[in-house]
């Protein structure tokens, strides 16, 4: 009888749990280290595109994670005059659902426990080694056939193995929160409203709440205040008072960041999720790429008994799409936020024209329409 292979994972966020589940489903013994003393998910809603939904289905959590989620039918971007600059529709084979992030996290936690994955809260991992080792803050070494860095943008494991190429602080940031839902609110359409360098994104979420994202430049001190300065945002979007007035005191402004790795693996150590490819959320693909890469990683390891070889093959197969999305989410952000106020009308013309070009549509939605390796 073949002995089960063992994995040690740093980080019990979305990426660490997804990798752990994908491996455990294939017979691996998995232990996950979480630096926090409790398992909690911060954030509001989360966009789950077709590629992410297929991956979550393969991980056994799609139905549970999306049980309360609104099914999105259209996505529209509008200029200050209300003109639609971009319009995208969704069908049965091209889905977008928007559950609360906490629902998704709870579904992953439950699935991990069903698979007898060991999760250790309060376990702070400070480094890793390509020979298959994680080291915690007390100096204890955790050995495994595979070690995974899923410890976020500022990954200490990634940095300890010199896999970081760049960590970029970008010029925009986001306040993401949930507001109470009203019966008259749109149920199936996401709308992104633009005015100057500010954007307000309205997302139907559940029967009880909607997800709202406020985007502004890092130099916009009033725009990034928490609690939100409602008067300032109402001045930018006077027709959205019904949304802005429902914003509460809770929220967090996060600066957009981008992580680029020299490589995603070294020896028997691998980097996943934000630790490997953090990006601004303009295309809503960060978590979806994490899920599809976590799933495909387990598939590649199934195909090749040599862990180091499997990791190299996985990166060659999966990284090009992730790099593509990073480039295009940056481009979308620059078009949306980096134009001087006096050229706002020109920006509207550029976006309206570009998004009607089939090639541009294909680039923007390449990941969403991708069928992940190992997906149902």
TrEMBL record:
Checking InterPro entries in the record gives: FAD-bd, FAD-dep_Monooxygenase_BioMet
Q: Which residues form a coiled coil?
A: none
User: Which GO molecular function terms does the record list?
Assistant: monooxygenase activity
Q: Where is the FAD-binding domain?
A: 9-301
Oxidoreductase found in the keyword field: yes
Q: Which UniProt keywords apply?
A: Monooxygenase, Oxidoreductase
Q: What is this protein called?
A: FAD-dependent monooxygenase
Provenance organism: Pseudonocardia oceani
């Amino acid at each position: 009888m073949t002995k089960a292979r063992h994995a040690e994972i740093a980080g019990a966020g979305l990426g660490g749990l997804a990798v752990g589940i994908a491996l455990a489903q294939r017979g691996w013994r998995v232990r996950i280290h979480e630096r926090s003393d409790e398992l909690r998910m911060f954030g509001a809603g989360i966009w789950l595109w077709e590629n992410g939904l297929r991956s979550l289905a393969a991980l056994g959590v799609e139905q549970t994670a999306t049980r309360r989620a609104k099914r999105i039918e259209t996505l529209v971007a509008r200029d200050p005059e209300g003109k639609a600059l971009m319009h995208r529709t969704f069908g049965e084979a091209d889905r977008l659902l928007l559950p609360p992030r906490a629902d998704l996290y709870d579904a992953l936690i439950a699935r991990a426990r069903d698979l007898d994955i060991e999760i250790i809260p309060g376990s702070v991992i400070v480094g890793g080694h390509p020979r298959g080792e994680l080291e915690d803050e007390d100096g204890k070494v955790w050995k495994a056939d595979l070690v995974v860095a899923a410890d976020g943008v500022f990954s200490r494991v990634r940095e300890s193995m010199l896999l970081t190429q760049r960590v970029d602080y970008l010029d925009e940031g986001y306040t993401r929160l949930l507001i109470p839902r009203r019966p008259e609110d749109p149920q199936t359409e996401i709308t992104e409203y633009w005015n100057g360098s500010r954007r307000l994104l309205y997302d139907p979420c559940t029967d009880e709440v909607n997800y709202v994202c406020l985007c502004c430049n890092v130099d916009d001190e009033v725009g990034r205040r928490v609690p939100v300065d409602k008067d300032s945002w109402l001045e930018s979007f006077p027709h959205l008072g019904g949304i802005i007035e429902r914003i509460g005191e809770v929220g967090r402004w996060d600066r957009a960041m981008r992580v680029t790795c020299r490589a995603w693996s070294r020896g028997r150590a691998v980097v996943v999720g934000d630790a490997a490819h953090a990006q601004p959320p303009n295309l809503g693909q960060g978590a979806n790429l994490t899920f599809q890469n976590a799933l495909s990683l387990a598939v590649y390891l199934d195909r090749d008994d040599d862990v180091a070889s499997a990791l190299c093959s996985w990166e060659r197969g999966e990284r090009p799409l992730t790099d593509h999305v990073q480039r295009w989410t940056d481009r979308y952000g620059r078009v949306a936020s980096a134009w001087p106020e006096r050229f706002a009308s020109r920006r509207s013309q550029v976006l309206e024209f570009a998004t009607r070009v089939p090639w541009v549509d294909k680039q923007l939605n390449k990941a969403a329409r991708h069928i992940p390796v190992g997906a149902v």
